[in-house]
Write a structure and sequence with these properties.
The chain is an alpha/beta fold. The protein has 5 helices and 11 strands; from the N terminus they run βαβααβββββαβαβββ. The N and C termini lie far apart (35 Å).
Length: 217
């Protein structure tokens, strides 16, 4: 792994307001590009907003989505790799994937689908089935989305597959207590497995009036 600069974004997304969310992301990308950042990581499902019941209606196909084209343009203009969360349309059943899209400066688009769903997510989403390794000229990295981070086996597998950095994008609504206390336990523990672990790119604020996200706690 070469020396590199990483940006982790804490932001508040608006449910279903993709254009506004993209505008917020564009500001972060421009600021990061000015500081010569190599990779910028945004939170889980930040493009459309995190809401379990609304996810199916908001989900989009990566191949045809207009906002993917916007992300490609951001990556190309900023010469930066974007890691961005979305609800991805599932063509086999009426439950979308929680997906983190990886957009490279050369316009290549890759993805990781969350493989470990929280209990409250399982009725609304489908789980992915592959632990992906992504490559940039400076490093190889993996992604563990929110609940994925509770499983050290996944971190071990990614490390054995050559990952030098693991990104941890979260939405993490605070429905089960103090999320920060939980992060301070398992994030340092994962550092014993992989040499470089980024902190969480996290939501803050409220969604649908009553769901509080931990970045605001």
């Amino acid at each position: 792994m070469q020396n590199m600069r990483i940006a982790l974004v804490q932001m508040k997304s608006k449910l279903g307001q993709v254009e506004k969310n993209l505008a917020t992301m564009q500001r972060f990308v421009r600021e990061a590009a000015e500081k010569a950042v190599d990779i910028i990581c945004f939170p889980e499902m930040c493009v459309q907003g995190y809401d379990r019941e609304a996810a199916w209606e908001l989900a989009e196909d990566i191949a045809t989505s207009q906002f993917i084209a916007s992300l490609v343009q951001m990556a190309r203009e900023g010469n930066i790799t974007l890691i961005t969360g979305m609800a991805e349309r599932n063509h086999e059943e009426k439950k979308p994937f929680i997906t983190q899209v990886v957009v490279h400066p050369d316009s290549t688009v890759e993805k990781y689908r969350k493989t470990h769903l929280g209990k409250s997510e399982q009725p609304y989403f489908c789980a992915g089935d592959e632990f992906k390794v992504f490559s940039t000229p400076k490093a190889k990295f993996g992604i563990q989305i929110c609940w994925d981070m509770h499983f050290p086996e996944m971190t071990t597998i990614l490390s054995l597959k050559g990952c030098e950095i693991i990104f941890a994008p979260h939405a993490s609504p605070s429905i089960v207590g103090d999320r920060r206390d939980i992060w301070l336990k398992y994030l340092p523990a994962r550092l014993m497995i992989t040499p470089s672990l980024s902190g969480p790119a996290i939501w803050w604020g409220t969604m649908a009036g009553d769901i509080i996200f931990a970045g605001e706690l």
